[in-house]
Amino acid sequence: MTTTPIKSVDWEVFVAALVGVEVIVDAAQVAKLSQDYHTFSPILQRQLAGKVGDIVVRPATEAEVLQVAAVCAKYRVPVTVRGAGTGNYGQCVPLHGGVILDMSRMQRIPWIEAGIARLEAGVKLATLDKKARVSGWEIRMAPSTYRTATIGGFIAGGSGGIGSITYGQLRDRGNLLALKVVTIEDEPRVIELRGDDVQKVNHAWGVNGIIIELEIPLAPAYPWVEIIVTFDDFMTAARFGQALGNADGMVKKLITVFASPIPSYFTALRQYIPDKTHAAFLIVAESCLELLPGLIQEYNGKLTYQKSAQDVGKGVNLGEFTWNHTTLHTRSVDPSITYLQSLFPTDKSLQTVEHMFHHFGDEVMMHLEFIRVNGTVIPAALQLVRYTTEERLNEIMRYHEANGVFIANPHTYIIEDGGRKQMDPEQLKFKQMVDPYGLMNPGKIRALMTQ
Amino acid sequence: MTTTPIKSVDWEVFVAALVGVEVIVDAAQVAKLSQDYHTFSPILQRQLAGKVGDIVVRPATEAEVLQVAAVCAKYRVPVTVRGAGTGNYGQCVPLHGGVILDMSRMQRIPWIEAGIARLEAGVKLATLDKKARVSGWEIRMAPSTYRTATIGGFIAGGSGGIGSITYGQLRDRGNLLALKVVTIEDEPRVIELRGDDVQKVNHAWGVNGIIIELEIPLAPAYPWVEIIVTFDDFMTAARFGQALGNADGMVKKLITVFASPIPSYFTALRQYIPDKTHAAFLIVAESCLELLPGLIQEYNGKLTYQKSAQDVGKGVNLGEFTWNHTTLHTRSVDPSITYLQSLFPTDKSLQTVEHMFHHFGDEVMMHLEFIRVNGTVIPAALQLVRYTTEERLNEIMRYHEANGVFIANPHTYIIEDGGRKQMDPEQLKFKQMVDPYGLMNPGKIRALMTQ
Ligand SMILES: Cc1cc2nc3c(=O)[nH]c(=O)nc-3n(C[C@H](O)[C@H](O)[C@H](O)COP(=O)(O)OP(=O)(O)OC[C@H]3O[C@@H](n4cnc5c(N)ncnc54)[C@H](O)[C@@H]3O)c2cc1C
Ligand SMILES: Cc1cc2nc3c(=O)[nH]c(=O)nc-3n(C[C@H](O)[C@H](O)[C@H](O)COP(=O)(O)OP(=O)(O)OC[C@H]3O[C@@H](n4cnc5c(N)ncnc54)[C@H](O)[C@@H]3O)c2cc1C
């Protein structure tokens, strides 16, 4: 497998070979479609500045994807696959130019059955959700970007989100049923992976196959209620979140806990969150509604906002203040703030959370997202960091790790340096097979650099 | 509150006062309706032998229940409420004669909405399930007796069952939404308890109010598949069960693990479970089906039986070999066998299970039911015991407790000596209010004996 793609391409000849496929060559548009949301990280902002593709190609069918793949293989052109470009680690930013393969026109949904959907990679999560709801189902988990993000991009670049409190993360067995990928070879093939084999491509950042179609399990579409509860004390808020997470009889989709002053960055919600209070943002099934006041009372919380299931779609959407939307809203007020991604150790008493909360004070503002990990509810966190220097940022991350907190570093564009630490050998093997010329998203895998 | 009810009743006068309500006086029938399944316990069998009611009353409406309650209060007659009489602790057996109040004619289902049902106490669980499925819902959890058991009896006398792997137990906040009870007073009242107040009556064995109507949350009716997996090694089977329980992306309704020779007692299933092998009985959503082989392989299991969702209702029903049906089937072959009810400590490595398995060998045959407790999947167990003496049975239970296993002793008809250890003061307070003459299921509460 070659790791340094050939760079001298006659783009006119190249584009001519793509006859029938939509192509964008306008430099401003190409530059825009070479971006993603790595800008949340001051480190990545610097490292990826000026990285752009040469052209954007927008296939609409499997046949067109095969055509593009063949042409890219022939001319040894790097390929950066792109969904909606909402990824946070520069996964979509081409390090070596080439083709930006925009999958967002592939929007067919072949079928939705009881509990399973088959859909093309470019389908927006919100579109699937709307369609599935007609028959009583919805997506199991979604990033807070679900209005724009594509399912292909979520599987290839995301990890979990709203819904992970019940179903765990995308990597968990059962949350992805099948994948159809196109290879980049002289004669590109279509390969369908099913069952455990999906792990060969799951969360692989578009390095080993162009995902064109997927099968994912669905969740029942409960009538959901959105709720804000405020607390005078942060640890009480956190313990409330853990207790609700542990309450097996209560069906939930989101348990987010913010330390003050994070909620003060949410302009649209200020009326519901008094200054200096800490807040829990919840999405729970309507059937829990009568039971929630008892739990809130146990933790001295105050319910300040409630949007009923019938009003979903109206007014603010609470989910769009959670997960990395928290960082988005905060940065829109104070762009010097950046964030961490972490997973606290299994410990229902939340000692490590408490320690970090006090240890860093205002420099690292606590933002917990409770999720299920290996059968147990624990807090993930996307802490907001008042950024000073790269050294200090690294120091903060090392301190967390030294105290048993797992850090998925969001300030790197190298797969292994982020959440995963080591490239799955199966994924590398699969890459060798489907991308023999090493054209897919080159420069993102450490294991291939040291070869 | 009186605790010793008045015993001399002129039954002719009494029955006359019940004009319009169905009454059974035939001694054979009354004796039959004074029984439950306490016979699984040699201890209870002896203690409760010969205990029968005087008459059976079968109201069909709220008005009739109020009428019965008033008459019982007037004549100070003990009342033993009864659903289907499938309880295991003699909860339905009258210690002081009196009226057996059979609720099984109260079968209305006022409404089923998205995720919630309201129903009368005498509705059979299977009936509710069938009706809810029409709109895509089903009961969250059910005892293996769901074909005959009533919802009133399940709430008043049960704990959980098939479905508890996902939703925990009946006592967990959120699994019961509202209760309507009739008091036994000179002028009986109807009281509706909602939200956390339901705990005043939840699992109270019919000592503090006649439940006439309930509101319970429903679960989505996935297409379910029934599966048997066999293993050469018991602990590998147990670890497989734990791993499947921890797999957040796999939707399940049942994970039961049997040590050999338990499966050999299931005559109808012998062809699927080779001699000397251990078995896992599973009910999982169809959408997990492709992922299961990978997990089974990791644990060297062998899938020997699979019934697809379309075939549910045909052939054997796997659920009816689990929970206390395991004991039923085993006792039908060897009536000298009895059982335990226990909850292993939270420990995903299952060390205590392993210790007990080896410690007791064939005397205590391991039967695990994985359930969620406070947000974590742990094995409950209904171990089968080769009974010798009461002393040895107690010794076995004490040994478990000494090793951190929680025992809900099924060999006692005293509430506090079973699973609950102490009577909830709120339940006692509520009893004082709704049963001022102490007529309801007298003799089952230790706290009232020592008064
Ligand atoms: C405000 C904000 C909030 C966010 N919240 C969350 C969150 O809650 N949870 C979460 O997991 N993420 C979150 N993210 C990250 C991101 O939005 C999601 O992961 C999203 O699902 C990515 O989808 P996309 O279509 O934008 O993918 P893109 O960013 O376009 O692509 C992501 C990766 O997938 C690859 N890829 C895309 N399509 C394909 C394909 N068809 N075949 C092969 N590879 C492909 C790309 O090459 C890239 O490596 C957030 C980001 C932002 C900016
Ligand atoms: C083979 C077998 C398997 C079993 N499996 C399970 C299991 O998996 N899980 C489980 O939890 N249980 C199990 N049980 C126990 C029992 O079957 C269930 O708890 C069942 O739900 C009881 O319902 P029932 O209608 O038979 O109640 P009954 O036995 O009639 O009554 C149970 C208790 O509730 C009270 N009660 C009944 N109706 C009312 C009412 N309307 N108002 C007030 N009090 C009332 C009674 O006085 C009694 O104390 C099993 C029993 C057997 C024999």
TrEMBL record, chains A, B:
InterPro entries: FAD-bd_PCMH, FAD-bd_PCMH-like_sf, FAD-bd_PCMH_sub2, Oxid_FAD_bind_N. Residues 48-221 form the FAD-binding PCMH-type domain. SUPFAM superfamilies: FAD-binding/transporter-associated domain-like (SSF56176). PANTHER family: D-2-HYDROXYGLUTARATE DEHYDROGENASE, D-LACTATE DEHYDROGENASE. This is FAD-binding oxidoreductase. It comes from Gloeocapsopsis crepidinum LEGE 06123.
